UniProtKB/TrEMBL annotation:
Keywords: Amino-acid biosynthesis, ATP-binding, Cytoplasm, Kinase, Nucleotide-binding, Proline biosynthesis, Transferase. It catalyses: L-glutamate + ATP = L-glutamyl 5-phosphate + ADP. This is Glutamate 5-kinase. Pathway: Amino-acid biosynthesis; L-proline biosynthesis; L-glutamate 5-semialdehyde from L-glutamate: step 1/2. The keyword Transferase applies.
Length: 261
């Protein structure tokens, strides 16, 4: 089906949840189905999934995210287990097993911990298990946090030597200006270099459930491209677009890798 053997797929909170804060079951099921199908075809997929805080907030019945760090950390602890239980259920329906990997930045900066993480990823992939990664929000503080899973997904892509990083967003791709405030914004299909001008055109999150917006996606793109990993931003509304992307069709925004891996 594809020459992309190892793929990292990142999905954001706004794709996984409704505005009510509850899990979008149809999305999560479709996403699980597509990833399981890729797994069956021999493709190695790592899923980087946000949503722990958002799902926790929904489960606790809060009207909005807590403002303080400890509240977000506690909400994440509630939501992460709920999220994994949903993934476990849906992936099992399609014959796949999942594993939870929670990372912090300092794990990757320490050689021994980094090697342990790489070994765990490799072993899980050899066993055809789908690793599902999130930041370990409960122990993440200002010094050790990634803060956003866009950056984390690019780090994971480099760590496991991925061929492709797909970021599923609540929008079709990168536009020449923020479509939330410019009705004439146009989709940019291919990016060869993340220029300063592009960075300036990128705005923040588009909803109360998203963090980072396009800024963190462009930072992720830079890291991926420099490491020889192609990156594509796709709309997560339709997880089946992942097939088109892997078939080489022009969907979303493609960031061309600078060097061979
Ligand atoms: N130049 C841009 N092109 C596309 N989207 C942009 C741009 N600048 C800001 N955005 C905003 O980024 C949002 C996507 O990021 P985010 O809110 O973090 O959600 P997600 O985690 O689902 O990707 C879009 O909904 C959009 O409003
Ligand atoms: N670790 C946090 C995710 C932070 C994050 O990057 O969120 P998002 O912008 O939805 O990808 C969580 O699981 O809620």
């Amino acid at each position: 089906m594809t020459d992309k053997k190892r793929v990292v797929i990142k999905v954001g909170t706004s794709t996984l949840t409704y505005e009510t804060g509850k899990i979008n079951l149809r999305r999560i099921e479709l996403l699980s189905q597509v990833i399981s199908d890729l797994n069956h075809s021999g493709c190695e997929v790592v899923l980087v999934s946000s949503g722990a805080i958002g799902v926790g907030v929904g489960k606790l019945g809060f009207a909005k995210r807590p403002d303080n760090t400890r509240g977000k950390q506690a909400a994440s602890a509630v939501g992460q287990s709920e999220l994994m239980s949903m993934y476990g259920k849906f992936f099992a329906e399609y014959g796949c097993q999942v594993a939870q990997i929670l990372l912090t930045k300092n794990v990757l900066e320490d050689n021994e911990r980094r090697t342990n993480a790489v070994n765990a990823f490799r072993t899980l992939l050899d066993w055809h298990v789908i690793p599902i990664v999130n930041e370990n929000d409960v122990i993440s503080t200002a010094e050790i946090e990634f803060g956003d899973n866009d950056t984390l997904s690019a780090v994971v892509a480099r760590l496991i030597g991925a061929d492709l990083l797909i970021i599923l967003s609540d929008i079709d791709g990168l536009f020449d200006k923020d479509p939330a405030s410019h009705s004439d914004a146009k989709l940019i299909p291919v990016v060869e270099t993340v220029t300063e001008e592009l960075m300036q055109s990128a705005g923040g999150a588009g909803s109360a459930r998203g963090t980072g917006g396009m800024v963190t996606k462009l930072i992720a793109a830079k890291g991926a491209m420099e490491a020889g990993v192609e990156m594509v931003i796709l709309n997560g509304r339709n997880p089946k677009a992942i097939y088109d992307c892997l078939d080489g069709k022009a969907v979303g925004t493609r960031f061309v890798a600078k060097t061979a891996k």
